[in-house]
Amino acid sequence: MIRRSIFVVALGLQAAAAAAQTATPATAPAQPAPIASASARPGIILEKFEARREKAFMRADTDGDGKVSLAEWTAFQTQRKAKGDPAKSFARMDANKDGFVDKSELDAFLAKRFARLDKNGDGVVSAEERPGHKTAPNQEQ
Question: Which candidate, 75, 105, 102, places its Cα nearest to that of 87?
Answer without folding.
Answer: 75
